[in-house]
Amino acid sequence: MMADQKISIVEAPLVYCVVLNWNGWQDTLACLASLMLQDYPNLVVVVVDNCSQNDSVVKIKQNYPLIKLLETKANLGFSGGNNVGIRLALENDADYVWLLNNDTVAPPDTATKLVTKALREPRAGEVGTVLHHMNSPRTVQAWGGAILFPWAFYRARLVTIPHEFGKNTALMAASVLLRRETLMQVGLLDEGFFMYYEDSDLSFRIYESGWALAVAEDTAVLHKEGASLGALSPVRVRYSIASTLRFMHKHARIPILMQGLFCVAVVFNKIRKREWIALKSVLAGIDDAWRSQYRANSNRVQERT
Q1: pLDDT in tens, 99-111
Q2: Which has the closest alpha carbon to 125: 89, 170, 160, 84?
Q3: How far apart are CA 162 and CA 141, in angstroms?
């Protein structure tokens, strides 16, 4: 199938687009406006409101009364909230699930280009998108995703030029197309990651299960990035630390060693800089990670006895 060919309704796989909202109805409305203009003929849009504390639900219903809107009873985090939409998609026999951040604007041909790439590469379990900065549309924010460096505590560096994704790489869930068969095999987003690293974990699991990672190189989705929390937010620091440690626990060659070195390094750095508020958030994140890991280990022990 050529890139400029349209996919007819007869041959178009069913795609569910899941948009997660948390107190960000302004961004969500702009995202939905772009989805209403998609030229893909078999697209279903689902909004999951992650227990917003403002009038997000009212605003979304007022502007898009026909769109499926799911409301969670608690803030389930990025993974948990998206999984609500993913499960609905799979229950309704979706062939693909398109995860799309609410702080994005997708050109009308985005869904078509993502599906076209997936059809061309049947071993691609996950297809990423070329993301551009919302405030600088000609500048690439991420060409699909990032490279993660195990020797640097899995610190990520965004890819901004064409790159072949594979080992130690991850596609950004700001806009990513997931194949049904892949999700059925490797599972959904790990809800142990409340925020951050959940998309990296999913890409690692997909690749390790024998699927390929691909990028629809002709896409160009605008992305704000960091719209939910400020870059220096104590909450963001806490979740980042906890998720980094969880990721190491799941993917590092010697998890306990890397986790220990990481904790010492980050705590020492905050003390050296006298960043006491940030240090408190770091310690809270470490505590969150250890508690979560301890519960997981305890559950495994109970299952064996």
Answers
A1: 999 999 999 999 9
A2: 170
A3: 12
For the segment 87-135, what is each residue's pLDDT rounded down to a tens digit? 999 999 999 999 999 999 999 999 999 999 999 999 999 999 999 999 9
- Given a contact cutoff of 8 angstroms between Cβ atoms, the answer to whether 32 and 19 are in contact is yes
pTM score above 0.85: yes
What does the buried/exposed string (b/e) look like for 171-198 if buried means 16 or more CB atoms within 10 Å of the residue's CB?
A: bbbbbbbbbbebbeebebbbebbbbbbb
User: Do the Cβ atoms of 203 and 247 come closer than 8 Å?
Assistant: no
- pLDDT one-digit tens code per residue, 158-195: 999 999 999 999 999 999 999 999 999 999 999 999 99
What is the DSSP secondary-structure string of 12-43? PPPEEEEEEESS-HHHHHHHHHHHTT---SSE
Residue with tokens 């979560």: 292
CA distances from 237 to 195, 201, 231, 233 (A): 10, 19, 9, 6
* Main-chain dihedrals φ then ψ at residue 266, nearest 5 degrees: -75, -35
CA distances from 206 to 56, 126, 158 (A): 33, 8, 19
Position 91: which residue type?
E
Which of 233, 228, 262, 221 minimizes the C-alpha distance to 245? 262
Q: What are phi and psi of 45, to 5 degrees?
A: -105, 130
Nearest CA to 134 out of 67, 216, 221, 66 is that of 221
